[in-house]
Sequence to fold (342 residues):
Amino acid sequence: MSRPTGRVLTLLELLQSGGTRTVAELADRLGVEGRTVRRYVDQLIDLDVPVDSVRGRYGGYRLAPGYRLPPLMLSDDEALAVVLGLVAGRRAGLTTAERTASETAAAKIRRVLPKHIARRLDTLLEALAFTEQPGDFDTPDAGVLLTIADAVRHHRPVSIRYADRDGRRSERTLHAYGIVAHAGRWYVTGKDARIGEDRTFRLDRVADARTLPGSFEAPVGPGPEQRVLSGFATAEYRHEVTLRIHGTVEQIRARLPAGVASLEEHESGAGEDRATERWRRVELRAERLDWLPPVLASLDRPFVIERPDELRDLVTALADRLTSYAAEPGSVGPGFDVLRGA
Fold:
């Protein structure tokens, strides 16, 4: 939307708030001169918006009495989908502005709904509960998000100013393949033109985005979502883990999803069915290893630890603890029966 068009719509919103607004007041709110305000008023009149000119000391502009924009027509299901989408998006962190933006948007939608639909939605929202607390995520700038989306659609390079997790700032030229929402955050994946390699960037860390001249060819192969998940699984962390697990792809992915680990078949034939139980190689990287033994235990599948030795020690320690917990009462040390209430 061009800035003049945006100011015309802002002028309409100001007039809709009621009363007479002086030219000086409108010019100050819009950041323009008085003659520009008069030109914007003429544009509204050309669009059949009835704006009255009020003369005198306290004169200015106002909307004709009784004028209102056409109501937003939503069915019950549509209204429910929109409002719940705003609520869920706010809780999941998938908003593109301050949290109040989704709240005010929901309030505006509710205000134009027929009373019987609004009452039903209010009843649902009052009865609705969530099992988790709302996420506290940094949200991307809406302008950055829209600029990068346009670059993705038209295969245009885009310059971004980015701050990594350590606060180091850099300027990148990105051939953006797509935008991905994952685990409450927004990401963009594409080729970093300077190093010629694929990279994934958190959009809330992008301070500015600017489309550049030229174009690029969209790559073949995995889609943006798979590229983001693969990037997470192969990111640089302290430990490199290699396993062999006997099971189906679905059994392994139930505990080690694509965003955590990469999976390759081990000694498998060409065209092997994903539903076939066989040995498959799993690789992942992690900053810590203490979370991995319980995950491997929950798989309930045979596995072999190829590296690191530290993980093998942690799994053995977990097995020893589980064995002691499962021992007969009285054999696990004094005081245990008291804790059980025996």
Notes: The CA atoms of residues 182 and 225 lie 9 Å apart. The first strand starts at residue 51 and ends at 54.
